[in-house]
Specification:
The complex is a heterodimer.
Chain A: E1 36-54, H1 64-81, E2 96-105, E3 120-124, E4 131-136, H2 139-152, E5 154-156, E6 159-169, E7 175-181, H3 189-201, E8 206-210, H4 226-231, H5 241-252, E9 257-261, H6 272-275, E10 280-285, E11 288-296, H7 301-317, E12 322-324, H8 333-337, H9 339-347, H10 353-370, E13 374-378, H11 379-383, E14 393-396, H12 404-413, E15 417-420, H13 435-439, H14 450-454, E16 456-463, H15 473-477, H16 480-489, H17 497-513
Parallel strand pairs in A: 1-2, 2-4, 7-8, 7-16, 8-9, 12-13, 13-14, 14-15, 15-16
Antiparallel strand pairs in A: 1-6, 3-4, 3-6, 5-6, 10-11
Chain B: E1 32-42, E2 48-53, H1 61-80, E3 105-106, E4 108-113, E5 129-134, E6 137-141, H2 145-158, E7 160-163, E8 169-181, E9 187-193, H3 201-213, E10 218-222, H4 242-253, E11 258-262, H5 270-274, E12 280-284, E13 290-297, H6 303-318, E14 323-325, H7 334-338, H8 340-348, H9 355-373, E15 376-380, H10 382-385, E16 395-398, H11 404-413, E17 417-420, H12 435-440, H13 450-454, E18 456-463, H14 473-477, H15 480-489, H16 497-513
Parallel strand pairs in B: 1-3, 2-4, 4-6, 9-10, 9-18, 10-11, 14-15, 15-16, 16-17, 17-18
Antiparallel strand pairs in B: 1-8, 5-6, 5-8, 7-8, 12-13
Helix pairs in contact in B: 1-2, 3-4, 6-9
Classes of the chains: A alpha/beta, B alpha/beta.
Chain lengths: ~550, ~525
């Protein structure tokens, strides 16, 4: 469908790209921009006791009561600021009072998945001026539709109102991921939940949970408890299986998948103490073990057995059909130094270290197959020439200055699905405004055929954990991650950061009002004379309950 | 995936980034600290503070407030730390984090203060203190209430919570020690900019809590700038009422922190100008038409000096400090040059074409008014750089990033006192461990004479607020500002980065426990109790 751009108060916005536009013209706009949105000038006011009902022909999807409760609370919060004691002079009159949101669902999917249907249509003002009609193919579209609807609320004459609007919306990419890293710093469960909530508001649908790495092993396995007992920062810095299941359920209620990553064979130092003496490769200097350890030792069957035991449990804990197998930055130096590995390679006619890496990766892929999991790997597995099956999804993370395009081209040319992460490492901070750089990336901007572009599953932004913990992770992610969210959800033609900036400013203000500490980095007030403040400055004591 | 930033070959049983957070290390590092081998149990929930103040009276309220506060802090600390919910049923976690040997208990903290009490921290404040911990208890000795405050903070930091197997705090321990401590520099400031983004009171107080923990003693409040005039004025929606400002000043006072307000003129007055017609110079284009833009203050309008007198008198009533900051940075001459009234006036006053002289006219008038009102003053370095004639007692704040050591040398050579802020602009962020750069800057490395070095009264770290508000303010500030705190308090030879790394991490965890959003500035690590926003 052709993208129809329409804003509120059409006349005032004829010069939408004008950087001096005052921000209040953008109340009621939506982030990420829907695929098709037609806004009219007439409006309805909202009834404070607005009801949510399911049409009789809709199936009862189990997440819906929770979804309705959340959005009812968010919509009602708009009435707190409206003053009833003020003697109001109305400059215009509403076309009606909306007291009902009528939701129609075609089919329940129950679990968010790679094939989840997130589309919805939303009608405000017509055919009825008393009720909003929201139609979704599955429950996920209900979440997105209610989110869109809530963002459209703005005060007219101090009364929460919505302009008559027609929206048809669906995501451009099915995989819109965000990576958190709980190894470099442990993140409290409440912080992870707040992150999931914010992701859902921004229509992200995948939490890529980089749960362990070389620094610490916080996944508390019941079948291999020594891994976290000896590999976590302290025995307190762990996620129990119950906590993880709680997080996954929290995410499901918000239409977000949780894809865990257990990165091997590199990045595994923290596994060593709990996994036993044969797990990590002993490195040699001058023909003798020097006491240091390298990647997982791929020549011992015990190590594959351990992984099978672990992944069998992981498969039961994480309901998503995808597993991230890692595979990045495997240093070959230690393997090269180790005589046992050299012997093994000679015996098995392996001539390159990529081949021995392949032995390990093949082992992991076999386990994933047996568990009926799909899997994602980091680009090195592909680039090193490790033979992988066609259904392997390759995540491209290198070359943020532009060489990612070559990698995306090569990956898709060989028939693999690709996820782009390179340009969206939000942990790399710099002074000033940087969201425009993230926004201006086009994931299909590489040499390829249409068939290749079809293989781009989506993208993933990342906040690696070296310098973030519960004190600062949320403001460092938001609203910069919102820029990526729009790139992955909205139509390809929605690509002007100049046109997006005040709408994004408005969205940040809304997130602040909902209790999310989204930082102010959208404009430089020294350059923007009309720099907009938010009507409600962030107060950490305000509305935080919307986050959890 | 992530580039290997912290590749460590050997794994230890607790993650390689883990630093044991409570060894009782002190930040900033004391001038002299002799830690003995005895260890005492401190009965933290029931500490008895015994103030021995020779000249006690109502003016000694800072000490009495402090004993109450610190009693609370110790209690809060033990209450904050709660066992993990599943902990008790999970045998895997039942591992003691510390050994649990029995030690003799001390429960008294004697505060000996022979001097007279000062109610208000001023530029003359002294902060020397001695701290002793032995079998007889804890003793803090100081000539001033401010030294008592600093000693109490050291005591707080030296106290190590001992956790039970269930993760709760069972008791507190403290090593026997003798500390003799005093600041290297007199003026250890932090500049808070509430003009570019409004900062709520809760954030300002959290900042001041952090300043106290880091032994900063000056809160430089940049209230007004081009973007807003939040100081009790009707033109902007988010303003601080006078009562609120007084509340902040009081909050800082009892923590031994001076509040030095800044009213930046003649540039950066955009917001104030909106409420005060005639204050700012009207700018003209080449055709002699007003451009609609306003420039610096108009020095030729005599009414503007009345306005300055009103504001400064107001400041004097609200802020008790003996100093005010008069700004004076980044004065562009272009608008003055475009304005015919101003050129005419300059012609009449025989300074035609000499805009530095015009600036000097403004500055010297404002300085006179300031003196009459009863303030000493600090100015940004341009006032000095531009050759404006200023009184010898003016404090010059060095902030431009170009060769700050040379500027320090020039300022002190000319006989002025200098404050250093150039290397410590925390708003300029970059990826990684930037606190090390702040830590490594040595303000006296300018090859000056002893007399010139003595003129460097200290420094200020600044967090300009273009890109910070309540969502990210405190985490951007701490512990990066802690690096500056140690540079300004501790001895010049305290430069060991490895030692500082371990201690600044512990300081971060300690600030977190106190409810301060100090971020993990030094790479992968863990605190025994992680900071949660849900803790609010």
């Amino acid at each position: 469908m052709r993208f129809l751009s329409a804003f509120l108060f059409g006349n005032a916005l004829t010069n939408a790209a004008d950087r001096f536009l005052p921000p209040w013209k953008f109340v009621g706009t939506v982030w990420p921009q829907p695929q098709s949105m037609v806004v009219k000038e007439d409006y309805q006011i909202l009834d404070a006791n607005i009801q949510f009902i399911l049409t009789p022909d809709s199936p009862q999807c189990d997440i819906i009561p929770d979804v309705f409760q959340r959005y009812q609370a968010l919509i009602r919060s708009h009435f707190k600021s409206a003053s009833s004691s003020k003697k109001l002079k109305f400059s215009s009159s509403p076309a009606g009072v909306i007291d009902t949101i009528e939701v129609k669902i075609v089919n329940c999917e129950n679990l968010p998945s790679q094939n989840m249907n997130e589309s919805y249509t939303l009608q405000v003002g017509s055919p009825s001026s008393e009720k909003v009609e929201l139609t979704a193919m599955a429950e996920w579209g209900v979440i997105h539709g209610l989110e869109t609807l809530t963002q459209m609320i703005h005060d007219i004459d101090y009364r929460p109102s919505i302009n008559s609007t027609m929206i048809t919306d669906w995501p451009r990419f099915p995989f819109r991921g965000f990576l958190i890293d709980t190894s470099r710093h442990y993140l409290p469960v409440s912080v992870i939940k707040a992150q999931i909530t914010a992701m859902s508001w921004n229509k992200y649908n995948v939490l890529h949970w980089h749960i362990v790495d070389l620094e610490s092993f916080p996944y508390q396995s019941q079948v291999l408890p020594e891994l976290s007992f000896l590999g976590a920062y302290t025995p307190l810095h762990v996620y129990t299986i119950n906590e993880i299941k709680d997080i996954i359920e929290f995410a499901r209620l918000r239409g977000v998948r949780v894809v865990p990553e257990f990165d091997t064979p590199g990045h595994t130092d923290s596994w060593g103490p709990g996994a036993g003496p044969k797990f990590l490769t002993p490195c040699y200097t001058n023909g003798k073990p020097d006491g240091t350890r390298g990647p997982i030792n791929p020549i011992y069957q015990e190590n594959y057995n351990l992984m099978r035991k672990l992944f069998t449990e992981v498969n039961q804990v994480f309901s998503d059909s995808y597993l991230h197998l890692g595979g990045d930055e495997v240093p070959f130096g230690c393997w090269k130094s180790n005589p046992d590995i050299t012997d093994y390679m000679t015996k098995h006619n392996l001539t390159t270290y990529a081949q021995i890496e392949q032995v390990w990766v093949q082992g992991m892929v076999d386990i994933a197959h047996d568990l009926k999991k799909n899997y994602v790997v980091w680009e090195e597995v592909f680039v090193n020439g490790v033979k992988i099956s066609n259904e392997t999804v390759v995540e491209v993370w290198k070359g943020k200055t532009g060489t990612w395009k070559d990698t995306m081209s090569a990956v898709t040319k060989s028939g693999h699905k690709a996820i782009l992460a390179s340009p969206w490492y939000l942990n790399y901070i710099s002074y000033g405004v940087d969201w425009e750089g993230y926004y201006n990336i086009e994931p299909t901007d590489f040499n390829g055929t249409n068939a290749q572009y079809e293989l781009v599953m989506g993208g993933s932004a990342a906040m690696w954990g070296e310098y973030v913990d519960g004190t600062n992770i949320l403001p460092r992610i938001w609203p910069r991650a919102s820029a990526v969210a729009e790139r992955l959800w909205s139509d390809k033609s929605v690509n002007s950061s100049a046109a997006a900036r005040w709408r994004l400013n408005e969205w940040r203000c809304k997130m602040l009002a909902r209790g999310l500490p989204a930082e102010p980095e959208l404009h430089n007030p020294n350059i923007d004379p009309n720099y907009g403040y938010c009507p409600t400055p962030f107060d950490p004591f305000n509305n935080a309950h919307f986050l959890f | 995936m992530q580039i290997f930033a912290f590749l460590i070959g050997v794994t230890v049983s607790q993650g390689p980034g883990y630093n044991p957070p409570y060894t009782g290390s002190i930040w900033p590092k004391p001038q002299f600290q002799d830690v003995r081998s005895e260890v005492f149990t401190l009965d933290a929930g029931n500490i008895k503070f015994i103030p021995q103040i020779i000249h006690d009276g109502p003016e000694c309220d800072v000490v009495h407030n402090a004993t109450w506060r610190y009693g609370q802090y110790f209690k809060d600390l033990s209450n904050r730390i709660k066992p993990h919910e599943e902990f008790e049923t999970d045998p895997r976690r039942k591992r003691s984090l510390n050994n649990n040997d029995a030690h003799p208990t001390v429960s008294t903290v004697t505060l000996i203060m022979p001097g007279t009490c000062e109610r208000i921290p001023l530029s003359t404040m002294e902060e020397h203190y001695d701290l002793h911990v032995d079998g007889a208890g804890v003793t803090i000795y100081s000539d001033t209430v401010w030294g008592i405050l600093r000693g109490l903070q050291t005591l707080f930091q030296a106290t190590v919570p001992i956790m039970t197997k269930s993760g709760a705090v069972e008791k507190f321990e403290i090593a026997g020690m003798a500390v003799q401590d005093y600041p290297r520099f007199h003026h250890r400031g932090f500049l808070m900019d509430t003009a570019r983004h409004f900062q709520p009171i809760s954030v300002i107080k959290e900042v001041i809590d952090g300043l106290e923990m880091n032994k900063f003693n000056v809160f430089h409040w940049h209230l007004v700038d081009d973007q807003s005039f939040p100081y009790d004025c009707n033109h902007f929606p988010h303003v601080y009422a006078i009562e609120t400002v007084k509340d902040i000043v009081e909050y800082a006072r009892v923590r031994g922190i001076r509040v030095v307000p800044e009213f930046d003129t003649p540039g950066h007055i955009g917001a104030a100008a909106k409420g005060q017609p005639g204050l700012a110079t009207v700018c003209y284009d080449d055709d002699g038409k007003p451009t609609g833009l306003l420039g610096p203050a108009d020095p030729t309008n005599e009414k503007n000096y009345d306005f300055m007198r009103t504001i400064l008198t107001d400041f004097k009533n609200v802020f008790h400090d003996d100093y005010v900051h008069l700004g004076g940075d980044e004065v562009g001459f272009g608008c003055w040059k475009s304005n015919k009234n101003i050129s005419d006036w300059m012609y009449q006053h025989n300074i035609a074409g000499d805009y530095a002289k015009l600036e000097e006219y403004w500055v010297s008038n404002v300085l006179n008014i300031t003196k009459q009102v009863g303030f000493n003053y600090i100015v940004w370095e341009e006032v000095f750089d531009n050759g404006v004639q200023i009184d010898p007692e003016t404090v010059v704040e060095v902030w431009l990033p170009y060769h700050p050591l040379n500027t320090t040398r020039d300022v002190t050579k000319a006989g002025f006192r200098a404050l250093i802020s150039s290397p410590w602009y925390l708003d300029y962020i970059s990826y990684g461990r930037d606190w090390v750069y702040y830590y490594n800057y040595e303000p006296l490395a300018f090859n000056g004479t002893k007399a010139e070095e003595d003129l460097v009264i200290g420094g200020e770290t600044c967090l300009w607020a273009e890109f910070v508000d309540a969502s990210n303010y405190v985490s951007r500030l701490f512990p990066r500002a802690s690096a500056v705190a140690e540079r300004l308090w501790s001895a010049r030879d305290v430069t060991d980065i490895k030692d500082a790394q371990a201690r600044i991490h512990q300081m971060k965890c300690r600030m977190n426990l106190k409810g301060i959003h100090a971020e993990p500035a030094d790479g992968p690590s863990a605190c025994p109790i992680e900071f949660e926003r849900a803790n609010y």
